[in-house]
Amino acid sequence: MALRSLLTAAERSQVLAVPTGDEDLAAHYTLGEADMSLIRQRRGEANRLGFAIQLCLLRHPGIALAEDSEVLPELVTWIADQLAIPAEAWGEYGTREETRQEHGREIRAYLGMSTFAIADFRQLVEHVCDVAAQTDKGLLLVESAMDFLRARKVAAPVVGIIERACAQALTKANRRIYATICDNLSPEHRRRLDGLLLRRPDSPLTEIGWLRQAPLRPNARAMNEHIARLTTWRALDLPWAAGKLVHRNRLLKLAREGASMTAADLAKFEPGRRYATLFAMSVESMATVTDEIIELHDRIIGRIIRTAQNKQNQNTLASRATIAAMMRLHSRLGDALIEAKETGEDPFAAIETAIGWESLAESIAQAKELTRPALEDHLALVSAHFTTLRRYTPAFLAILDFQAAPAAQDLLAAINVIRAMNAAGTRKIPDDAPIAFIRPRWGPLVFTDNGADRGFYEFCALAELKNALRSGDMWVTGSRQFRDFDDYLLANPDYTAMKNAGKLPLVTANGGERYLQDRLALLSERLHQVNVLASRDELPGVLITDKGVKITPLETIVPQHAQPLIDQASAMFPRIRITDLLMEVDGWTGFTRHFTNLKSGQPSKDKQLLLTAILADGINLGLTKMSESCTGVTYAQLDRQQASYIRDETYSAALAKLVNTQHGHPFGAHWGDGTTSSSDGQRFRAGSHAESTGHVNPKYGTEPGRMIYTHVSDQYSPFHSKLINVGDRDATYVLDGLLYHESDLAIQEHYTDTAGFTDHLFALMHLLGYRFAPRIRNIGDTRLYTPANGTELSTLAPLIGGTINTKTIAAHWDEILRLAASIKTGAVTASLMMRKLGAYPRQNGLATALRELGRLERTLFLLDWLQDPGLRRKVTAGLNKGEARNTLARAVFFNRLGEIRDRSFEQQRYRASGLNLLTAAIVLWNTVYLDRTVTTLTSNGGDVDPDLLRFLSPLGWEHINLTGDYTWPRANQIKPGKYRPVRRSSKP
């Protein structure tokens, strides 16, 4: 029997939690007439109150009252008030243990409940075992067990017994999962899986170590190596369908657990667990390699096109002197010919005299050279890279199984033609080869007098393949990121059932089209309202003319008279090392408890070692350098901590704890109530080993980099972050942070800058229940859209961009709702759908209809923006908080010149998560000490204007020592409930 603990102390308290709010108390603990009649039969106020409390606790949360049980005062008061008994009587109850036990038996009989017995334990294990087949989260298992006992009217035993039953069920479920997979593995399959743990010839790597390596660079060599990896995975010829017999969560957990271990550790597993783990790793790794091959192709094609574009730009710059000389020459020629015409002179003689025939011939030759296709369109220059493509494209096209929607069938046919030519070794493009996919820009390059050019035809097909895979017009069998668009969404029967029951998790719960009609009516009303105000010149700070719109810039958000208080508070912060800060914050919050062991689910026993590994991520020092900077710490120790305790989900849970603490701190209310937020991307250069994994965005120059996209609440808490490519538009990831953070924040309104909005996002944000308010640069260039033609809006006419295609929205209304519901329920991530919907050249009905709905919502927002200066001020203030947080992050992430240098994407994600956790800890620490600073100033007779407290910021770091040796105190030097003394205000 498994005896290990499944719950942390906080989770154990959560399971037994008794509600304290008036609404929850009323819902769970309102006594009925039958209850009151039974209670009145007790003699004495203490017995009646104690009897009633036992009755309530057995109903919810379903636990018996033990001798040492602590009952919340709120519950005692609530029940005492119903009985008209003083709450103090509770202290007199239970002096006789027999009385409490007798009451318990009578209440169980009254409620029809039985006492928990050994038979109930066995049934509980079987029930939880079914749940454990889907998740191994201890809290979810225990909550499921409690629900099971309530449904069967069995009085719950102490949590330890329930926990033991769940642990036993989890062990049993694990064995069933191992057996389910192994039953499908033949002896030959097992031999092949064991072969993954052997070393490769002439290599220090094991077979599985080599197979799980990420590609180094986006080039033909790396592509062929990765194709070889996919070929090797497929050669195992495992029963891949067996992976579908195990819940996705458990299969992924098995794969992650195996990935965190060495080959030697895996070899020590008992056979069932070893083969199941290796099978799960194989399933996940094969899908990962497939996706990486497609991403490599995307990057290679993109790099070739960028290289051609840069070459064209260089040629253009290099030819400036030649063009200038030609212009001067032709200018003299033109003057000579005009003069010859006016004087009647022989034009040929004029040419000979002015420039000479040899100069003219040379100039014409230069003009022909400068106007050749390569200099007119950079795509002509990609021909220099055809050899590079030929090194990998035959194998690339052969190993992937492409499928296509009707819109891309012609492209799929072209891919099949190229495959056939590769197999036959032919060079000439067949006369009947598909050409409908070829865009006009490619036409002059592909079509020649001798037929289609093989190189340009193939490159055009490969470039369009890249676009089609991005948009979802084509997909690949066995891929996770490039599947059929419809496969990502809720199954139609599930969506229909939700809609018919009126339970869509959207602003329109029943999905009725009446909702859309109401939005259009609101838009019409608001357009007329703003048009009238504009005609009277009554829009505050806004001037609309025939040339567009001009908005008066806002004044400085922080008033000058607040600066003395800001400076004074900053000078009073205690000076502290970053290590001490983390220890102190952990003492307040216990956030390190959320870094649980991948296998046991228990927190780390060495808190300081764990914090050292987290700090290595957060300040971008890395484990190697951190081990050199910490006395008594080795790289191997840090590596084991990271492998066992640091994962995306543990970082998220720990971050949520810090954010929740910040949200609950009274001083945080000065900045906001936690219902608004902003998001922004911050670029970090990719250097050293990571340079080949970085992406280039001309906005940031030619150096490769990575972007960390962070969501920040109005209380300054960075509650979500994600590592993304610098080439991706910010708007792709806005919804991810709002939907998938784990904190208690209930965000209602969200701000971004110009890069953070698209029409698709406007539509989805509204359907999912968020108020979207981006700060749009050059708002005069942003168009308004009206519900119908013929609307009289004379003053707003310069801003009107057209009408909304309501027929398209209505025709695809169900598809829009299904997409939004799929995102809300977690069937698919928002960023994946946003990327596909916005990908060029997708023009399907859903994308078009969603864009039209987005235009409606964007117009409503712009009308508010024109009319409400308060909204403009709020958005600016919110974005300023995010930008200031980025400044703090840049200061913290200072090692390695602030560059991301890790080769693997997983390690890069840990850098981003560690940085966000560290900034959240600094924000919380600063908030606590800002509160103490203000309290000190007030208690010393200082005059602190409460209205100025909102201008204080918890983003300073001058008082924090981020550099040097990282040493940890043996224990938290600050006792519970105590704080460091603030400095005197006179000492800056």
UniProtKB/TrEMBL annotation:
GO terms for molecular function: DNA binding; transposase activity. It comes from Pseudarthrobacter psychrotolerans. Keywords: DNA recombination, DNA-binding, Plasmid, Transposition. Residues 678-701 are annotated as: Disordered. InterPro entries: DUF4158 (IPR025296), Tn3-like_transpos (IPR047653), Tn3_Tnp_DDE_dom (IPR002513). This is Tn3 family transposase. The keyword Cytoplasm does not apply. Residues 580-966 form the Tn3 transposase DDE domain. Residues 6-169 form the DUF4158 domain. It comes from the Bacteria. GO terms for biological process: DNA transposition. Belongs to the transposase 7 family. Transmembrane segments: none annotated. Pfam families: DDE_Tnp_Tn3, DUF4158.
